[in-house]
Amino acid sequence: MALPITIVTIAAIAISSFAPAAKAPAKQPDRTPEEVFTHLDANGDGQLDPGEFRGKREGKAAKRRAEAFRKMDRDGSGGLSPDELRAGFQHHRDSE
Predict the structure, then answer these.
(1) What is the pLDDT of residues 32-50, one digit of tens each?
(2) Would you say the pTM of this structure is higher than 0.85?
C-alpha cells in the first residue's frame, strides 16, 4: 500500500516541477539607493516626503512603508534625505 502512495507523491512532484512559475513575482533588478531616491523624489526637492516614499501602496504595504519611513527619518524632519535613504538601505542589507 505504501508503494502506490510513493508513486503518486513522486508523480505530483514531477508534474509540479513543470508548472509555470507565473505566480512568483518577478525579481526587480537591484537599484542603487541614489537611483531609488531619484525615482521616488517626484517633485525634485531633494527630500522624500511620506507620500513620495509610500507611492501607490495601500493597506499593509502602505503601513510597512510608513514604519520604514519613520525609522529612516533619523533627524525627525518629516523628510528623507539621500543619506537617510542610503543608511536605511545599508541597514536592510546588513540585516538579511
Answers:
(1) 999 999 999 999 999 999 9
(2) no
Domains in the chain, please, with CATH?
30-96 (1.10.238.10)
Task: Tell me how far apart the alpha carbons of residues 29 and 49 are, in angstroms, rounded to a whole number.
Answer: 24
Neighbours of 41 (CB within 10 A): 19
Instruction: Give whole-number Cα distances, 95 to 30, 47, 55, in Å.
Output: 17, 25, 24
Task: Average pLDDT across each block of 10 residues of the chain; the chain has 96 residues. List them in order.
Answer: 47 45 59 92 96 94 94 95 93 84
Strand, helix or coil at 50? helix
